[in-house]
Amino acid sequence: MIIPGDKLAVIEEFEAGEGTYVDDGVIRANTLGVVHKNFAERRIEVKRKKTVKIPKAGDIIIGQVESAQASDISIRIHFLNNEPSQKGFVGMLLLREDENKVGKNKIPCKVGDLVRAKVSANVDMIIILSLLCSNCGVIYAVCSVCGGKLVKMDTRLKCVECGNIEHRLVAPDYGLVKFP
What we know:
2 domains; 0% helix
């Protein structure tokens, strides 16, 4: 593993490639990564081991609700555009009167629910989420009374164990989602 500034070679040995720069005839790493030497072309490069995918506006996430307040909901992002997210980003679903609500004074999801949401904005790593897209909403939930499985009944969810009826903003494919 090479860090930025590490000496890789001199310009007489190799030509500077991707992820490198030349400083007084010395080729140095410009990025954190792994050195790749191409002896046929006499070229040296530093390639990143993994690229970090940061949620941006328009991306679709799948995450789990960590906390739910009257004004906002925190969602731990597990999937970003159907690919696993290893960085553990947390998004905020802001509850405004005109959007993201099931009805008057009702929260669209509860702690533990799996939710599909759209990234509205990412301002200084504050990830703002929205449920205002046709495929967004709760995709899996359990009963808040007994922990049993909730099944979809019209716009409501009913527990198969205790019969409790709960309200959520459910996605059209609630209960049918297969994870990549």
